[in-house]
Design a protein that fits this description.
The chain is 32% helix and 19% strand. The chain is of the alpha/beta class. α2 (61-74) crosses α3 (88-102), α5 crosses α6 (179-185) and α9 (268-288) crosses α10. The protein is globular, with a radius of gyration of 24 Å.
C-alpha cells in the first residue's frame, strides 16, 4: 500500500495460539507488518509463501514431532495411540508426528479428537476408544484446556497402565499437575522449551504499585486480585461495589507467595523476552545503521520513517548472543533453532513435579539424550 502517513506500528509481538496467529498473519501479511510470536508452534506457519512476515521465538512443531519420534524410537515403542486437539495445533502436530514415526515402522492404532467446547458425549467416545484399544503408549498433542476434561474422565474411570506422552502445551501445565490426576498420568513424558530465570524480573514484578502509577487500570485490578484489597487513590471515592476491603496503603508484594512471582521456571516468558529483544535489535540497526556491538553509533533514520518491510528484512538478519548465551536468530522460514527439555511427571513429598530427564536439540550432533535411570515409569518400562 502507498500512503504518505507513517505506519502505526513497526512490528507486532503476538499471538499465543497457532490458530490466532494464522488469522493475524494472514490479515497483516498484505501490509508487510512483521509478526513475532512467542508461543505459536504450528509447523504450517513456516510456509513463507503464505506467511512471509511471520517469525517466532518458540520452535516449530516440526521439530517437536522429530523429538517425539526420537523418543518413541529410543524406547522401541511400535504400537501407539494418539489424541489431538481439533484445531490447527493438534491437526498439524499429529500430522508431522505421523510422518516421522512412519519412517520408523511405528503404527498408530487410533487418533482421537477433543476440544474444550465438545460435549461429554464426544469425550466419552475418546475414552471408549482408549479402553477398547490394546495400546499401552498414547501421545496427547493437545493444549491443557482441551485435555483436562478428558484427563478427569480417564481418572474417574480408573484407566491406568498407560504411558502418556505429552506435547509442550500440557506437560508442565499447573492445573492437571495434581495428586488426583497423577493416579492415571504419573510417569508421563514430554518435551518443553528450555526454561530461564531472568535477572531482576522478580524485583520488577514485586515493585508493581498502584500508588506509583495511578493512571494504569491494569495495575489496580492486578493489585486487587493479588493483594485482596482495593486501593483508593487520592481524589477517588472510597465507595465501591467490590467485595474486597479498602487497602490501608501499607500492603506490599515483596513477600507474596503467589505463583505469578515464581520466575525460576520461565519458558513462555523467556520466549516473550527473546521476541522483544529481536525486534529491538532490528529497530536499533535501522535507526543507527550499525551493529549494536559497535561503540560509536550515529542516528541515520528517524523512527517515524521506519517501514514494516524494513523491520522484516532486519529481523531476518538478526543474529545475536543474548545475556544467557543463547544465539537468537531466525532461519529462512522465520523459525529459531530448536531445543527442548524432556520432562517426566514424578511424585515427591505428595507434590507432582516436572523433572528434567533428557534433552533434544536440532543443532546437536546427538539430537536426543536421556537419563533413563532418573525416569519414573507408569508401570515398569513399557
Amino acid at each position: 500500500m502507498n500512503s504518505s502517513c507513517p505506519p502505526a506500528i513497526s512490528a507486532l509481538i503476538a499471538e499465543a495460539g497457532s490458530s490466532q496467529s494464522l488469522a493475524i498473519a494472514g490479515a497483516l501479511g498484505p501490509f508487510q507488518v512483521p509478526i513475532v510470536s512467542y508461543f505459536s508452534t504450528c509447523a504450517c506457519l513456516s510456509d513463507r509463501a503464505k506467511y512471509p512476515t511471520f517469525f517466532r521465538t518458540i520452535p516449530s512443531d516440526y521439530f517437536q514431532a522429530k523429538a517425539l519420534a526420537a523418543l518413541v524410537k529410543h524406547f522401541g515403542w511400535q504400537w501407539i495411540g494418539a489424541i489431538q486437539s481439533d484445531n490447527d495445533y493438534g491437526l498439524n502436530g499429529i500430522l508431522a508426528f505421523t510422518e516421522e514415526v512412519k519412517k520408523l515402522g511405528v503404527c498408530i492404532a487410533f487418533v482421537g479428537k477433543i476440544k474444550r467446547t465438545y460435549g461429554m458425549d464426544k469425550i466419552l467416545e475418546v475414552v471408549e476408544m482408549i479402553k477398547q484399544s490394546t495400546v499401552k503408549v498414547i501421545l496427547a498433542f493437545v493444549p491443557e484446556s482441551d485435555f483436562y476434561p478428558l484427563m478427569k474422565e480417564v481418572v474417574k474411570q480408573n484407566i491406568t497402565g498407560i504411558q502418556w506422552i505429552g506435547s509442550e502445551a500440557w506437560i508442565t501445565a499447573s492445573q492437571p499437575s495434581t495428586h488426583e490426576i497423577y493416579q492415571a498420568f504419573g510417569g508421563a513424558l514430554g518435551f518443553v522449551v528450555n526454561k530461564m530465570a531472568i535477572p531482576n524480573l522478580r524485583q520488577f514484578l514485586t515493585g508493581i504499585n498502584p500508588y506509583e502509577d495511578p493512571s494504569d487500570a491494569f495495575v489496580k485490578d492486578f493489585w486487587e486480585t493479588i493483594v485482596g484489597c482495593r486501593p483508593v487513590l487520592p481524589g477517588e471515592d472510597a465507595v465501591t461495589d467490590s467485595t474486597n476491603e479498602i487497602c490501608t496503603g501499607y500492603e506490599t508484594l515483596l513477600n507474596s507467595k503467589d505463583l505469578f512471582f515464581n520466575v525460576t521456571q520461565l519458558r513462555v516468558s523467556y520466549n516473550v523476552y527473546k521476541a522483544v529483544y529481536a525486534v529491538a535489535h532490528a529497530l536499533h540497526q535501522l535507526v543507527f545503521c550499525q551493529s549494536v556491538r559497535e561503540r560509536s553509533v550515529r542516528p541515520c533514520l528517524n523512527t517515524s520513517e521506519i517501514q514494516p518491510k524494513e523491520v522484516t528484512d532486519h529481523l531476518q538478519r538478526v543474529n545475536v548472543i543474548n545475556q544467557f548465551g543463547d544465539n537468537v536468530f531466525f532461519d529462512k522460514n522465520g523459525d529459531p533453532p530448536a531445543s527442548y527439555d524432556l520432562i517426566n511427571w514424578q511424585l515427591k513429598n505428595g507434590q507432582v513435579q516436572h523433572v528434567t530427564v533428557g534433552h533434544f536439540s536440532s543443532a546437536a550432533d546427538k539430537e536426543l539424550s536421556i537419563q533413563e535411570e532418573r525416569i519414573v515409569w507408569r508401570k515398569g518400562k513399557m
